[in-house]
Structures are given as structure tokens and as C-alpha cells.
Design a protein that fits this description.
Elements: H1 11-20, H2 24-40, H3 42-49, H4 54-79, H5 82-91, H6 105-116, H7 118-122, H8 126-134, H9 138-156
Length: 177
Amino acid sequence: MSIQIGIRVPETLAAQIDARGERAEVIRRDLQVLFGLLTEYAEPLDERAGTCGPERALRRDLGRYYALLERGRAEARARLSEEEVRAIAGALNGILHEPWSMPLLPAEIEDSVAHENLADRHGIDGPALVEKLTHLSAGATWAVIDACERHWNQIGAGEQPDACRLLEEPAREERRL
């Protein structure tokens, strides 16, 4: 069953959408993503929303998550060499992580060192890398995984990102409305 919903858009927002040349399909896709998030995370959003409502809670929580990633990238840059980060990215090619699997990063890299010659291929000390990963904060671990996933997504989209810049702040696109 599907429900058709009409949305009234203020003229200023409509003008911005027109100026960006967005088509109805793009807007429909974005709304489906939003509705999916609001449905999937309805209970935790309601618990956190208080009087501000789910939209504001979602914005706040995403803002917190991106701030956590920013701090995590800084920690990871301080603790990991560029060669180690490139090795991790190579080991994570094609792997998507869910929240429950993120703490498994040290074990994944340990397996790659043991069974895929990761350390030799990248000229790094494999056991030392695994030890470093074991002592990263959760935020830094998530930031490393996020950076690697973004890197492989860019390659999949035909871009050629600089692997040496994996842990730098991602380019900020124009904010979506």
C-alpha cells in the first residue's frame, strides 16, 4: 500500500530547488530516504525528541555523529601513518560495516595481515597496526571505516580520490535543504 502525500513548499525553497535544477525524482528519492529513517528510527527519535520533534532530533543527532567522526579523524591522523591508512583501505575494499561490526576492525586487519600479506604489500608492521587499532577510540575506529567507505564509493563513482588524504575532512557539498 502506498500513500500519496502533498507537501507545500515555501516559495524561497521552491526557487532554490529550481535553481539547482532538481527534478521531482530526486526530491521523491530524498523524501523516501527521510521517511525511511523516520520509520526505522521512530522509537529512539521519539525518546530523544522531547519537545523539539523528530526532525530536529534527527538533525541534532546527525550533527553529533559528524562531530564524532571529525574528532575521530583527528585522533586517527595522530596515531596512524598514511601507509597504514592506505593498507586499511585496501583491506576494507568491498566491505560495508554496520554499527555492530565496527569494533571488529582490528580482527579484520589481523586476518588481512595473516592471510593476504597486507603488511608486506604496504610496507608496514602488521602486528603494530593491529595493536594501534585495538587502542583507538570508538569514534576514531568509526572515522577510519567511514573514510575508507567514502574512498571506495568515490572510486565506484569513477572518481580518483587521493588515498593519502583519506582522513582529511571530506569536501563539504552545498548543504541540502
